[in-house]
Amino acid sequence: MALQTSELTTDVTIRLVGESGEGTISLGELAAKMLTKLGLEICTFQTFPAEIKGGTVMFQIRARAGEVLTEGDAANILVALTEDGFVSMGGNVAGDGIILYDSDVFTPPTVEGRWLLGMPISTMGKVLKDSLRSELEGDQVARLPAPKNMIGLGALLTLIDAPLTPAEEYIKELFGRKGDAIVRMNQRALNAGADKVKEQLEGRTIPHITAQERTAPIVTVSGNQMIAMGALAAGLGFFGGYPITPATEIMEFLAKELPRFGGDLIQAEDEIAALAMCIGASYAGKKTMTSSSGPGISLMVELINLAGQAEVPVVIVDVQRGGASTGMPTKTSQGDLNLAVYGVHNESPHIVFAAASVEDCFWATIEAFNLAEQCQCAVLLLSEQSLATKKVTIPPPNTAEIRIVNRKTPTEDQLGERYHRYADTLTGVSPMSSPGLPGGAYVATGIEHDELGNPGYTPELARQMKDKRFRKLDTLVREQGSQYAHQFGPAEGPLDVGIIAFGSTEGVIREATAAAAATGLKVGHLHLRLLNPLPIEQVEEFASRCKQILVPELNYTGQLAGWLRSQVGLKLHTYHKDEGVPFVAKELIEEIKSVAAR
Ligand code: COA
């Protein structure tokens, strides 16, 4: 049968929902690969329950010809493998969207304009799985999900008029480790899904995804992978970590790759030990990093101060998740800003830096290492669940642009019996030796100390050394503060609305501001990456151009707005929520318009 196609689509949002444990993520990853193969750029989003089995997994892919800033909003095509998934995450479908569903388990309500396309996916999956029983061990069969996801993939690819052959290869790559029989079953499922959906396409026009010619190389990567690769590029020598969702993948990636670059990795007994190991290894001269999420960062607080007092560089990645406590570990949030900025006892200098996109996870990690080395203190690098698991296609980072900063080390003259490890310099930065360097021995300690490292508690010494340590941050913000933020919108002149934000929201804010600007509003956007010390002058300069300032953020209390008010004293409109999911452009456009009208 010849299919009728509409020469449609260079911007499509596909949402996949199913039960956790039944392979929705595998389905999403293969569909995303296929769209990439067609020359489109992709941005994905996934959300899943904390349980290994049960509950709804959602995987969304936006594919476009050209830059993709967000994972999209209303789905053009929804593939619903379960009724629960349809009810909880299937609501937002475009008016003329297609809903491909498992007719064995439910029937979605009819909506004028939408195409409901039911297939007996469960029955087909069971038949395919049963055909394997004689070839597998009993427990292998028990653990094997029926290949409903690959039936869905075959149907989906046929629906968008995409070829199946590359998908057969991808199935081999993905499931090859499970054995030939399982690969063959999944390839059969793919073709069965394609054949079955064709029975219903007679007389229908299906969307044709217009393949694009790719002229430059791309990589498909997630935020967690980019942080791990950024750390390798920055010269990571030691990683100490303890697994926690959604940061674990950073450690898993580095466990494989770091030894190839001559580094070491230890899975510690807990987060406290992990950071302590990093501080020790950094004292010994290595560039070090740990990664965790909110609950793990809480445990590290004491040691963040040790790094500050003893002036030891270390990078601490916080992949933020919904909370508090165990909270919503597999959902996204920007709820740890206060913890990062204020979360030390007493006061000690530390830096807070935030990655703005998956691509920026690479560059922000390098900056985090550079700042840790430069200022000899802990740098908290904020990422988020949505960045961590999001896959995007981007050009490979241009390694020629990588700039590496190493810690200041003592000259021959500075070494010797009176080596001033904590020399009170103009910038606050003092030369740091490492164990084994003749004349470079010193005591690195959290106790208050003089320039040589000897304990001391006089009021004069307390003031002098605190001044010296905090001076490093003053120097940083004065000399480099304006380098780190990304700025979008008109570079000069008055703005109706200026947006100040941080973290994963950069893409969706860019999309929203472009749409708002198209209605005639003048909208600017300052996206902060260096959050502590705050580049106050840069914020004030931007704010001076804005009639109204909007601060959108993904936490319950408006933490960035609070931090800005405490430092700069601006009149701000806040838009904040902490519901485990990212913003969509539509809600921000509404917010921008409403703020502009005030
Ligand atoms: N044929 C063979 N195997 C298949 C298959 C198919 N057609 N489809 C999926 N599978 C396998 C996958 O390979 C995977 O196997 P693996 O565990 O050996 O890697 C497994 O089935 C699950 O499929 P996948 O697509 O990866 O995930 P899913 O969409 O079913 O979602 C998770 C399940 C990943 C969300 C869930 O298991 C999970 O990890 N939840 C989060 C737990 C967590 O972090 N909690 C927080 C604790 S604080």
What is the topology?
Layout: E1 4-9, E2 11-19, H1 24-37, E3 41-47, E4 56-64, E5 75-80, H2 83-89, E6 93-102, E7 115-119, H3 121-130, H4 138-143, H5 148-159, H6 165-175, H7 180-198, E8 205-209, E9 219-222, H8 223-234, E10 236-241, H9 248-257, E11 264-267, H10 271-283, E12 287-292, H11 294-310, E13 314-320, H12 337-342, E14 351-354, H13 358-375, E15 378-384, H14 385-389, E16 391-394, H15 459-480, E17 486-488, E18 495-502, H16 506-518, E19 523-528, E20 530-532, H17 536-543, E21 546-553, H18 559-568, E22 573-576, H19 585-596
Parallel strand pairs: 1-8, 2-5, 5-6, 6-7, 10-11, 10-12, 12-13, 13-15, 14-15, 18-19, 18-21, 21-22
Antiparallel strand pairs: 2-4, 3-4, 9-16, 14-20, 17-19
Helix pairs in contact: 1-5, 1-6, 3-7, 5-7, 6-7, 8-9, 8-13, 10-11, 16-19
The structure holds coenzyme A.
